[in-house]
Amino acid sequence: MKSSAALLASLTTGDSPFIEQAKRAGQLFIEQPYELYSEENHQAWRKLYARMLPCWDRYANEHFLQGIHSLCLDPERIPHLEDVNRFLSPLTGFQAQAVSGYVPSFVFFDCLRNRRFPTTITIRRSDKLDYLPEPDIFHDVAGHVPMHTDKHFAEALVRFGECAHTAAEMAAGIRGPDTRVHYLTSVIRAMARFFWFTIEFGLMREGNDLKVYGSGLLSSHGEIAHAIEAPEVQRYPIQLEWAINQGFEINHYQPLLFIVDSFDHLFSLVDQLEAWMKAGKLSNVAPGEPEVNEGDLKSFLHAELD
Ligand SMILES: [Fe+2]
């Protein structure tokens, strides 16, 4: 029979008693109980890292490559967030903060505003490396966090977090509850689409080449090459009006990707997003994916605005 300590000893996605316990206790922000990672967990990290490395060299943007270098990630072992933050914080003020699971959208965006990145600490199974509908520590730390070492990218993320704040303030000024919910559903959808087509799946120009800066691509062994090489993928210079009205599906490779020129360009798009929000242009974006759930709406409705 396994001891209770042994039973707890795994931080595998979907199969982690520690995470289940935290969720039951209503704890969203948690510690990273590093000793609970099993050898199989570390093996999953090792395999994921080893197979991404050549893809990064070929397809990732230069700021990401510099970021991987700056963070001194260990290819062999799952990183301690504490160590990651020791390298990350002095560069941009960002910190990776462990969470037990899904973070409602306002809370998530507000963390960005405060230079904190909600970070999943579980890892996918080592025999199922490819398909994962939810984030894990490889996606969050190897896919997202290296981007947070870049000053210009970090500023764009913070600016995006400020947009969520503006949205919550504007919603608070709407009197009818139904109108308020309609407004928020549209704005959250617009912001989620923007985030998806930039932070998760964005491409950028680098000289005459196209490189990947979106973390969904940077953590996907299969899709990163497909995003750059496959002839059937539509790749277009980003237009804000298109990105916020365009639905997306998460269960297959993306058929449509948008290109930015630089992270200053990305920052200016976030500025424009907020200006459009203030002008009412995000109040009725095209219906469709993604669905906006109750938790996301409530997070905006009950946002603490400082
Ligand atoms: Fe992500």
Distinctive features:
single chain, 306 residues, alpha/beta, two-stranded parallel ribbon, 14 helices, 9% strand, globular, disordered N terminus, binds fe (ii) ion
What does this 3D model show about the protein?
The chain is of the alpha/beta class and 306 residues long. It is built from 14 helices and six strands. It has helices at residues 4-8, 17-24, 39-59, 62-71, 81-92, 105-113, 137-144, 151-172, 177-200, 215-218, 221-229, 240-243, 263-278, 294-301; strands spanning 95-99, 116-120, 203-206, 209-212, 234-237, 256-260. A four-stranded mixed sheet has the order 4-3-6-5. Strand 3 and strand 4 form a beta hairpin. Helix 8 (151-172) runs antiparallel to helix 9 (177-200) and helix 9 crosses helix 14. The protein is globular, with a radius of gyration of 19 Å. The termini are far apart. 42% of the residues are buried. The structure holds fe (ii) ion. Fe (ii) ion binds at residues 135, 139, 144, 200, 215-216.
